[in-house]
Amino acid sequence: MRDLVYTGFLSLDGVVDSPGGGPGEEHRSGGWVVRDIEFVPEAFSLKGEELADTTALMFGSRSYQAFAPVWRDSDDHADYRELPKYVVSSGLPDDALVDGWGPTTILRSTDEVAALKRGEGGAVFIHGSAELARRLSDAGLIDRYHLLVFPVLLGAGKRLFSTTDKDRQRLRLRESETYSNGVLKLIYDVVR
């Protein structure tokens, strides 16, 4: 059984965005991660630590289309280049996949994600992809959250957690750390 891990940057009121803003983040506070918070390298060390556990990446179609062309050519993301990637999308055509960024498979449903989880292999990390994370969380498929929580309240933007009326889901704190710029690292296991 593979673990499915969501990793992301989160405002205190639950908004997730990529560090510099981008497509789908056209609200007035887009780009808040790099604009509003003092850069403290150790506050971002979680991203490097995750590499040791990452055996594959998963994205929703919009995040894949935003990240793939940039990360493929980025020295900062070179370790991701040859990892298997999964894009969860019912509508993304096969010819929309980015060449030169390792093996990529399109999963067409939540059931296909569940089947992937039941297979052999290590942890699959979801980057960005707020809509996908909400859907997979509601389906009980996410096993762990790696969150960097920033001391800002944004009011608008994509939310990590849905407001769907569902059974309560408990989380167990695995690790936490506070940094001088007010960022919190929170790693939670989903209790089943």
CATH class: Alpha Beta
Strand order of the largest sheet: 5-4-3-6-1-7-10-9
Number of alpha- plus pi-helical segments = 5
Mean pLDDT: 89
**Number of strand elements:** 10
Using the alpha-carbon principal axes, give the shape.
globular
- Rounded to an integer in angstroms, the radius of gyration calculated over CA atoms is 16 Å
CATH architecture: 3-Layer(aba) Sandwich
CATH topology: Dihydrofolate Reductase, subunit A
- Unreliable runs: none
Strand content: 25-35%
CATH level 4 superfamily: Dihydrofolate Reductase, subunit A
Largest sheet: 8 strands, mixed
Order of helices and strands: EEHHEHEEHEHEEEE
Percentage of residues assigned to helices: 10-25%
Number of domains in the coordinates? 1
Estimated structural class: alpha/beta
Intertermini distance:
14 Å
What do you see in this structure?
- This protein is an alpha/beta fold and 192 residues long.
- The protein has a single domain, classed as Dihydrofolate Reductase, subunit A.
- The chain contains 5 helices and 10 strands, in the order E-E-H-H-E-H-E-E-H-E-H-E-E-E-E.
- The protein has an 8-stranded mixed β-sheet. Strands 2-8 form a two-stranded antiparallel sheet.
- A hairpin with a 5-residue loop joins strand 9 and strand 10.
Features:
eight-stranded mixed β-sheet, 5 helices, 192 residues, 10 strands, 20% helix, alpha/beta, two-stranded antiparallel ribbon
